[in-house]
Write a structure and sequence with these properties.
The chain is an alpha+beta fold. It has a single domain (34-131), classed as 2-Layer Sandwich (TATA-Binding Protein), CATH 3.30.310. It is 22% helix and 15% strand. The chain has helices at residues 51-67, 120-131, and strands spanning 71-73, 82-86, 93-98, 104-109. Strands 1-2-3-4 form a four-stranded antiparallel β-sheet, with helices on one face.
Length: 132
């Protein structure tokens, strides 16, 4: 989708208007707080991380999630690559198992967040809201 301005030349355009030759850019989808997180590990070879690199990778993911306002904890200190993530007022928890090849297995749980006698419509609504 292109936006069009009414002025006749780009030099006459008001500040903050959109040049009619450029497509609109979507709003930023990452939190502004991420600007302060060092993500240099993302540029480091090899693709298979050493133990020290994996620790830094997990730390970076943790910092990014924390900067986004999420709570991150490591339930087992012997396995720092397993993280549990949730929003402070959220209903769900994401469990991340980060691997040295920069992949991760994750699962989403809601505990007993769906009460007894929930209608089919309400249950389906929760699932649709999660996946959209």
């Amino acid at each position: 989708m292109l936006a069009h301005c009414s002025s006749s030349s780009s030099s006459e355009r008001e500040e903050g208007t959109i040049d009619d030759r450029r497509p609109l850019t979507p709003a930023q989808i990452v939190p502004h707080q991420w600007d302060g997180v060092d993500t240099s590990i993302d540029a480091e070879p090899p693709e298979l991380l050493s133990p020290e690199q994996l620790d830094r990778y997990v730390d970076t993911v943790t910092e990014l999630l924390t900067a986004a306002g999420l709570e991150v904890r490591t339930p087992d200190e012997r396995d720092p690559t397993h993280l549990e993530v949730n929003a402070p007022t959220g209903r769900f928890t994401v469990e991340l198992d980060i691997r040295d090849d920069r992949t991760a297995e994750w699962s989403l749980s809601g505990g007993d967040e769906v009460p007894e006698n929930t209608t089919a419509l309400d249950l389906a609504s929760v699932v649709v809201a999660l996946l959209r």
